[in-house]
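Quiz preparation item.
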């Protein structure tokens, strides 16, 4: 396997496993961090952008990143389980990592979606 292919597949594997966790961290910093700091200062916008728009972007962008990681993990897990006939320990390990990524990304997507529902229901600065 060429070196560039190995690097790309390694990056995609780790993105499929950890993409949702990193996107959730981004969601926390952007959506809730900006909301708290802006509201404490008594403002309702940041640079002329309403806080609801920033918080909305802090929900949508991480949600899309998590969805991409979830789909990538699902696709990789299906391929890894289909190739399990070889009894290659690397494929078994890859399949296990992708299954963990599949479950974790589903959890993080639901957490981000719940945060988005809170933005829709509650006023940003109460």
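Solution:
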């Amino acid at each position: 396997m060429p070196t560039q292919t190995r690097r790309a597949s390694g990056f995609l594997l780790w993105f499929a496993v950890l993409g949702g966790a990193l996107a959730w961290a981004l969601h926390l910093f952007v959506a809730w961090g900006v909301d708290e700091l802006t509201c404490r200062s008594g403002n309702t916008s940041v640079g002329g952008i309403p806080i609801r728009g920033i918080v909305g972007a802090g929900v949508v962008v991480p949600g899309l990143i998590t969805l991409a990681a979830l789909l990538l993990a699902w696709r990789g897990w299906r391929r890894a389980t289909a190739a399990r006939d070889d009894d290659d320990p690397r494929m078994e390990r890859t399949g296990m990592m992708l299954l963990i990524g599949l479950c974790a990304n589903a959890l993080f997507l639901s957490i981000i979606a719940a945060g988005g529902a809170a933005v829709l229901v509650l006023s940003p600065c109460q």
